[in-house]
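Give me the fold.
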Amino acid sequence: QVQLMEFGGGLVQAGGSLRLSCAAHGSFVSINNMGWYRQAPGKQRDLVAGITSSGDTTYADSVKGRFTISTNNAKNTVYLQMNSLKPEDTAVYYCKMNYLLYRDLEVWGRGTLVTVSS
């Protein structure tokens, strides 16, 4: 069974930076892609940034130019560097991984809270 461990959430002032990390633990053949999603109170969970095994990235329009997703393949870890944070970035951030074991599978982290004060 694969588990995702997220770190790095917290309280930051507007304009500040945070770095989230998410490490995958368990057995799998390969990672297809990893991503970060966020869910603000009363809103749906939306994609923030994603990265494929080949390094292709995608970003929500609202975070382009401010957030950067990256991976350390040796550590099965994905990062989200968040700069120029805004109050509207406040949300619970979730890590998701699509991986191959005996078939294509998906796992979510438990989430980490990011609060940006104005």
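DSSP finds no helices and eleven strands in the chain.
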